[in-house]
Amino acid sequence: MANPDCPLCTAIGGMLVFQAAKFRVIRAEEAGFPAFYRVVWTEHVAEFSDLSLADRSLCMAAVNVVELALRAQLQPTKINLAALGNVVPHLHWHVIARFDWDSHFPSPVWCPAQRPVDVAALAAMQTRLGAVDLAIQAELAALCQTE
Fold first, then answer.
1. What's the number of domains the chain is made of?
2. 97 lies in a domain?
3. Are 35 and 97 in contact (CB under 8 A)?
4. Distances in Å between the alpha carbon of 71 and those of 15, 27, 92, 99?
5. Is 2 inside a domain boundary?
6. What is residue 32's DSSP assignment?
7. Cβ proximity of 97 and 105 under 8 Å
């Protein structure tokens, strides 16, 4: 079921990395945070507990794949996971690679910046995202084969 008033029902929400029947993974377009991904549930539901046990397991397996790919490919200082949904009440998980050089670290990405943006570090990170996307695609394709 889609909700015509929901931005995650009516648009992809970023650069599409992987599409499955029940979820998609996108790379968000968040300035200053190039390794900011979202796992978006296809059906319009607001809460994780709205999913069946099998779907909750699949959703978290997808989140795990994205986290592991970010860790393996980028070696971040920390991974942030969040499923807030206060602004967009459509189930989606934020999976964000964080680095001690990022403008907001150690605060959440939604807080005020702690330092200026490191343009050189961001540019270097941008060149590595293709490999992250390929790793996510390969692992999610394998995951979806077993479903």
1. 1
2. yes
3. yes
4. 20, 15, 20, 11
5. no
6. T
7. no
Q: Is 125 part of any domain?
A: yes
Output the pTM of the full model.
Answer: 0.94
Query: Which backbone phi and psi does 17 adopt, to 5 degrees?
Result: -105, -40
Give the tokens for residue 1: 């079921």
For helices 53-74 and 129-145, give the axis angle rounded to 10 degrees.
150
DSSP collapsed to 3 states, 95-130: EEEECCCCCCCCCCCCCCCCCCCCHHHHHHHHCCHH
User: 95 is in which domain, residue-wise?
Assistant: 7-145
Using alpha carbons, select from 109, 138, 141 the residue that is nearest to residue 23.
141
What is the amino acid identity at position 137? Q
Q: Residue 103: give its domain's CATH number.
A: 3.30.428.10
Nearest to 37 by CA among 11, 68, 58: 68
pLDDT tens digits, residue range 33-68? 999 999 999 999 999 999 999 999 999 999 999 999
64, part of any domain: yes
